[in-house]
Amino acid sequence: MLIDVSGNVDTASLLEKVMDKEQLNWRSIAPREMIVSNWNAGVTPAYDLIDAEGTTRRRVNGNPGQSAIEKAVERCLDELK
């Protein structure tokens, strides 16, 4: 499951407009203050890979590219085997 924790918008209504414009088809949450304080996500984008128990397995800060993210996901899946 993919969940976008959006730090670029401050309100749910603005987030909805961005999602419509960009045709995003995954769940997103906002506002920024809650995200920064609760998730310690001062860098954007930040990707957290969370397992079925809710444990953060990896954090990827910045935009390393799709290949790096896929490799991080694959490593997490391999650890679960």
What does this protein structure show overall?
This protein is of the alpha+beta class. It folds into 2 domains: 1-42, no CATH class; 48-81, no CATH class. The chain is built from 3 helices and 4 strands. The chain has helices at residues 12-22, 32-39, 66-80, and strands at 3-5, 27-29, 46-50, 56-61. The strands form 2 sheets. The chain has a two-stranded parallel sheet. Strand 1, helix 1 (12-22) and strand 2 (27-29) form a beta-alpha-beta unit. The protein starts with a strand and ends with a helix. The mean pLDDT is 76.
Instruction: Determine the strand fraction and express it as a percent band.
Output: 15-25%
> Order of strands side by side in the largest beta sheet?
1-2
Sheet with the most strands?
A: 2 strands, parallel
The number of helical segments is 3
Cα radius of gyration in angstroms = 14 Å
Give keywords.
alpha+beta; two-stranded parallel ribbon; 81 residues; single chain; globular; two-stranded antiparallel ribbon; 21% strand
Question: How would you summarize this macromolecular structure in one to three sentences?
Answer:
With 81 residues, this protein is an alpha+beta fold.
